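Researcher: We're reviewing a set of sequences before deciding which ones to prioritize for further study. For each one, I'd like a predicted 3D structure that I can look through quickly. This is F-box domain-containing protein. If possible, include the structure in token form so it fits the rest of the review sheet.
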Amino acid sequence: QAVCVEDGIGVVSGSIGMSDFSDEILLSILRYVSTSDLVNNVSRTCRKLHTLCYDKTLLTTVTLSEEYTADNGAIRQVLNHLSNHVQSLSLSGCYWLSGSTIDRLIRCRSLVRLDLSGCRITSLRLSRLLSSLPLLRSLAFDVSPGFDSAQLSGEARDSLSRLSELRQTVLTPSYGVLQLDILDVTRWEGTSMCCQLMMGQSSVPHYQQLEEFTACLAPGEVNQTLLLLYLAVFSVRVPERLRSFLVSVPGPNPAHWPAASSLAHSLVQHGDLEALQLPRSWLDATSLGRVLLSNAPKHLNFSRCPTLRQTVIQSLTGTGVRDSTRLVSLNLSGIGHTSNYPECSRARGEEELVAEAMSRLVICCPNLSHLNLLHTHYHHDNAHTPGLEANTHLCTSLSKLTHLRSLALPVCALSDGSHTPKPSRVGLQTYRPGSGDSLPREGTSGLGTLLAGCPCLEVLEITGPGFISALPRLEPCARVCVDQRTCVNARGGGGRARCGSPGFRGLRRLTLAGLPGVLKGTGLVQVAEHCRDLQALSLANLGSLKTWNYSAALLDTLRNCTQLTQLRLEQPYLVCNGAFWEALSCCSRLRRLCLISRNGTFHPAAVVTFMECCRDVMVCHMFLGGTLVACRTLQKTLLDRFSVERPALSVVIYPLLHEDLPLVIRDMPLPLLDQLTLFQSRVAQAPPSR
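Model: Here's the predicted structure for F-box domain-containing protein, in token form for your review sheet.
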């Protein structure tokens, strides 16, 4: 709550109140307040703050995304106050809003940009919106089953024809979604194409002025079929102004696209490419090399393309890119589980990272801010390489990236290459409650060296070899726990690279997955002690898969994570007893929780007590063991007790191994699936926000 003293009355001599700050300072402070609180609470404090809260600099661009505490009444009140001011509005992820609340947007006739992705919207409601917003130029929304473009009015079709940016998330009846982002700098080629495009029924849409095309598919052949409909126009003509082409197709057999060679030829000719991502089978190394030679991209994503990784590295470290210093985001991650990818399992050497090449990559791309190297391998060789400093370790090279903000690494990259006969621990130490500080000595931890040289690092992901989640985002759902592939350095050399490093102080998001050498988890406690601002923590399959051997350390960790807002915990054998929920209650700011365990157990009464204690929790997803009746009973209890006071409450409790789980997942809010429930790396997946 904001407190203001009117006209200085009541101010004690020598003290400074809110009213003593200049308007500029107060406006800077108010920018950190959510719009809902700004309009509904702060503006009522005093006359001065009321005036400032309605300053156009605060209300022209408004984001209400994930305002979990704002119910439909609060959002409607905000929209009533914003109707004469707002030009850019995002309701992305507000899955709980009713249709009547969405209808209030009709009054915001000055809207130029509108993001409704994740909201429930019908074709008739969209038609009314488009007919009432004459200035709209940018639109994002979800195309749900049953959407009928024939219900759009003529006026709505005219509004569509004036759009310069359209982003759709097409909800298909498979496991996942197809997301398409399209940007046109002028106008679409006719109204009928726009309507047909939304349903994927166009014969051949014409993107004459298209600048950006993005398609992110979930597993499923139906998604690939729909994608080819959107790409049909490229077989006729590649848009000349295309500068961003991002297509992600998971699975072992991406559908063949005949126009890939035409796209490559066009990108070579125009040379203004900024972002590129392609399935591994669409371009060969020679064609890709020519594309990179003629351009200076800012974002490259060649995840799951091991055969192209060396081409990308060679282009960036040689003269194969026009200006490699412009690159800020690079994804070279491999394929974690290769049983369905026989051509990749035969080419194991392509997963290896070479110290010399990576050192040169850092030198040639000094402005990298986001780097993803997951599911690759790095085995450090202490032998001296000519032209490099002696013992140049991958982490030593990466520590020179002073602008690095997010990083994803394989755990073997933390090894120093020296092996000892005694058992070793990956990333974590034996847990002894109350034990003294046991941070690694200087020079023994690759992770410590890395963190010391990257002061801006906020997101860190460390994943072991062969890890695949029971609920993955980019793989078919795994019903059984997959054995992790052996890697000597993943189990042995990483014992010196403990997580308890002072460099963790700046981290906001930490992911540790598939680390087989974890025993008791002392490093987790040290992370919590050193990283007081940690907001999101994801732990999956640490240590033995036959028991939960770091439970005591995790409880101590949770007691120290006072700023944690999101927790995802996946382990084959979770014991969610009273002690677990009591420790989790110390995370007073927690908003989103996801627990995944095929043999996990839970204590219903303790869950209810936890929800009563942590009143900010809006998302509780639990996929554990137990009977269907027990899961449904607890889910109903939580919804009945807390839905009224928590408008955005999403509770899904279901047996992980139940045959109807895919149907349950399909009905869950897409933003929560994508951001929390389904496991995926989030580093360098998309171009950085402009």
